[in-house]
């Protein structure tokens, strides 16, 4: 069965990025710990960033992926407090202004976002910019992570397309090695509506 744990991958990805920037070391933190131990969210049945960050504050932090590996199903929480490798003290909701989002990304690190995943189901590469009626910005159903941005120049028409680089949790065979480029600047698929980030201890 499918485990709807995208929210947990977005949250751990955000914290991994912040940790790497602060400590010059990229560690992989445990999504399964969130699925099992975050009682404010619903494990494989979905979750929200703000409540996940609150839970991480409450339970004390995250273990490493290797110490609490991912199984993709709801299990009993077996958190070992002595194995916690990162703690957070708060979280911040980021402006829906995409210029402010870009500023935050440069100054602080990757951003957890929710979006409508309609267009992602059929993504074959390039900058995704679906029509609004195909990708309702009010129906946010997937959690991912913004890790960068840029501008793509199209080959023949030389149109400039600003984009976000988004890390997804559907494995490396999906999209562009697991990543997605979505149009930046007009709230495509609602990607600017629920931007958040942890603040590390």
UniProtKB/TrEMBL annotation:
SUPFAM superfamilies: Cysteine proteinases. It comes from the Eukaryota. GO terms for biological process: proteolysis. One of its GO terms (molecular function) is cysteine-type peptidase activity. Gene3D superfamilies: Cysteine proteinases. InterPro entries: Papain-like_cys_pep_sf (IPR038765), Pept_his_AS (IPR025660), Peptidase_C1A (IPR013128), Peptidase_C1A_C (IPR000668), Peptidase_C1A_papain-like (IPR039417). Signal peptide: none annotated. Residues 1-199 form the Peptidase C1A papain C-terminal domain. Belongs to the peptidase C1 family. This is Putative cysteine proteinase CG12163. It comes from Lygus hesperus (Western plant bug). The lineage of its organism: Eukaryota, Metazoa, Ecdysozoa, Arthropoda, Hexapoda.
């Amino acid at each position: 069965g499918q485990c709807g744990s995208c929210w947990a991958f977005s949250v751990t990805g955000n914290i991994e990025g912040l940790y790497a920037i602060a400590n010059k070391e990229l560690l992989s933190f445990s999504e399964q710990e969130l699925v099992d131990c975050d009682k404010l969210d619903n494990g494989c049945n979905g979750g929200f960033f703000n409540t996940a960050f609150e839970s991480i504050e409450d339970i004390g932090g995250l273990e490493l992926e290797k110490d609490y590996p991912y199984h993709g199903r709801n299990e009993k929480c077996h958190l070992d407090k002595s194995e916690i490798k990162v703690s957070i003290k708060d979280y911040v909701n980021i402006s829906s202004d995409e210029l402010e989002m870009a500023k935050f990304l440069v100054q602080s690190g990757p951003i957890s976002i929710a979006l409508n995943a309609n267009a992602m189901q059929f993504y074959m590469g390039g900058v995704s910019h679906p029509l609004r009626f195909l990708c309702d910005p009010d129906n946010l159903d997937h959690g991912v992570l913004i890790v960068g941005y840029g501008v793509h120049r199209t080959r023949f028409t030389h149109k400039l397309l600003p984009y976000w680089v988004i890390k997804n949790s559907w494995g490396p065979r999906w999209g562009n090695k697991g990543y997605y480029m979505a149009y930046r600047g007009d709230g495509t698929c609602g990607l600017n509506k629920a931007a958040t980030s942890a603040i590390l201890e």
